[in-house]
Amino acid sequence: MIKYLLMTLSSFLLKFIPLKVAYKLASISVSPVMHFSKDYVNKAERNFEMITGRKDKNLVRKLFLNLALNTVDLLRFPYLKFKDIDGLLHINGMERLGEIYNKKRGIIFISLHLGNWEIGGFLLAHFGFSPYVVVEPIQPRKTLFRKDLIANLYRKYREKVGMHQIPLDKIGIGEYKLLRKGKTLVLLGDRDITGTGIEVEFFKKKVKLPRGPAILALRTNAAIVLGICVRVENYRFFVRIEPIDYSPSESVYEITSKIAQRMEFYIRKYPEQWFVFQTL
């Protein structure tokens, strides 16, 4: 309940605070959050050691700073307009996505816990792709309220900017129908939440990653597109959209391996923005 009240109050106040000021205020929270998140800090340190080959506490601090800035962006969703961030964007590859969409071919849009995927979803909606976003269920804590207030708040924020939310535990035949109708389905590809993933090479280790994108593509002939939205200098965003070619004759393993290779490339490039707080 306290977290819910803080989020709604912060969202209201952010309407009157300049973005750069809001970012500065958010940066103040980094040290106390890290202090009370030792387990997450330790897991992030181990992941960075795997990615870069060395322990780097500065990278961990940058990670938590980027997380704080992402929170500001999400809390601004109830009144965020494209003109508010237009001058902060450098977009590469949107025309390729448009070409696929205009052919009425379904799009499996692979995102990952990198950069600001929420802004990425906002942009997809703004440019007319009306994305259906599959999200990890937020486990409700013990509360006097029957409904999960935080999960509902995230849903409302996303719907406010044009995203359609589908809980991962509710995914089924409807997603096949969406793709066959030429719709855009957004899936996070860097964590096997359900425990049913396929084992592929990822950062020189055998890691289970979701097999769903490959299965959906093979069964619906949908295009697979990888997208990232990362924060660069002066609070700007770099957006990269990259189709991943595959053949109907390829296996689920081969297609998932292709996805893993491209995800690894961008994670290595922006390690301080990879928000996976579990050891691979």
Looking at this protein, list some descriptive labels.
280 residues, alpha/beta, two-stranded antiparallel sheet, 47% helix, 17% strand
Report the count of strand segments: 9
Q: Report how far apart the termini are.
A: 32 Å
- Provide a count of the helices: 12
How large, in whole angstroms, is the Cα Rg? Answer: 19 Å
Given helix and strand content, the structural type is alpha/beta
Strand % is: 15-25%
The topology string of helices and strands comes to HHHHHHEHEHEHEHEEEHEEH
Helix content: 40-55%
Low confidence ranges: none
Overall outline? globular
Structure explained in plain terms:
By secondary structure, the chain is an alpha/beta fold. It has a domain at 82-273. Helix content is 47%, strand content 17%. It has twelve helices and nine strands. It has helices at 2-14, 19-27, 30-35, 38-52, 57-75, 82-85, 94-102, 117-126, 149-160, 173-180, 212-220, 252-269, and strands at residues 89-92, 107-111, 132-135, 164-167, 184-188, 198-202, 205-209, 223-231, 237-243. Strands 1-9-8-2-5-3-4 form a seven-stranded mixed beta sheet, with helices on both faces. A hairpin with a 2-residue loop joins β6 (198-202) and β7 (205-209). α2 (19-27) packs across α5 (57-75) and α4 packs across α5.
Topology (elements, then pairings):
Layout: H1 2-14, H2 19-27, H3 30-35, H4 38-52, H5 57-75, H6 82-85, E1 89-92, H7 94-102, E2 107-111, H8 117-126, E3 132-135, H9 149-160, E4 164-167, H10 173-180, E5 184-188, E6 198-202, E7 205-209, H11 212-220, E8 223-231, E9 237-243, H12 252-269
